[in-house]
Amino acid sequence: MNGLGHVMRLDIACGNHKDLGFIGMDIQTLPGVDIVHDLNVHPWPIEAESVEYAKAWHILEHIPPVSVTVNGTRRPFIEFMNEMWRVMKTGARVDIETPYGGSAGFLHDPTHCNPITAVTFEHFDPEYTRYRTYQPKPWKILSLQYTEDGNVNVVLEKRAE
């Protein structure tokens, strides 16, 4: 691990605009980035159950939903959500914001590959029927706001298994 084994607030994919009071993690070495790490490589260099609050703004649209390898099919988006679940304390919350999957903000960027919509996070909350499809680590949807021509913002809370 990286010596950051205390309870923390984590700004996932912070870029050069990390929020005050947060530990910043990004794939690039930029001012304010405390942990340089590829978010698609697991485990992240963060201890389990060490994050009390996280922010993941404008990163999920860059995480591939599916990838095919010589060893079979992977689901990097579900793996990302499961890894985020691992580092969060039970009951901790993550604030996620991403362009709505069919919006111009999603479509104009050639690196956007994961279209998030109003129902995407139902796949991660056991209270919804969609959860049964993949059964990832369990989250609870606390709030969900979106506009189809703008962004999706969701706050999730880590549930115990």
Trace the largest sheet across and list its strands: 3-2-1-4-7-9-8
Number of helices: 2
Which CATH class is shown? Alpha Beta
Which segments are poorly predicted (pLDDT under 50) over 5 or more consecutive residues?
A: none
Q: Please give the number of β-strands.
A: 9
Domain count: the total is 1
Q: Give the proportion of residues in helices.
A: under 10%
As a whole number of angstroms, the C-alpha radius of gyration is 15 Å
What structural class do helix, strand and pairing data support?
Answer: mainly beta
In one word, what is the shape? globular
CATH topology: Rossmann fold
Q: Ends: how far apart? A: 24 Å
Architecture, CATH level 2?
A: 3-Layer(aba) Sandwich
Mean pLDDT: 95
- Could you name the CATH homologous superfamily? Vaccinia Virus protein VP39
Q: What fraction strand?
A: 25-35%
Largest sheet: 7 strands, mixed
Element pattern in H and E: EEEEEEHEHEE
Question: Which properties best describe this structure?
Answer:
Rossmann fold, mainly beta, 2 helices, 7-stranded mixed beta sheet, 9 strands
Describe the secondary structure blueprint for this structure:
Layout: E1 8-12, E2 23-26, E3 35-36, E4 51-57, E5 67-69, E6 72-74, H1 76-87, E7 88-99, H2 104-107, E8 139-146, E9 151-158
Parallel strand pairs: 1-2, 1-4, 2-3, 4-7
Antiparallel strand pairs: 5-6, 7-9, 8-9
Concise synopsis of the structure shown:
By secondary structure, this protein is mainly β. The chain is 10% helix and 32% strand.
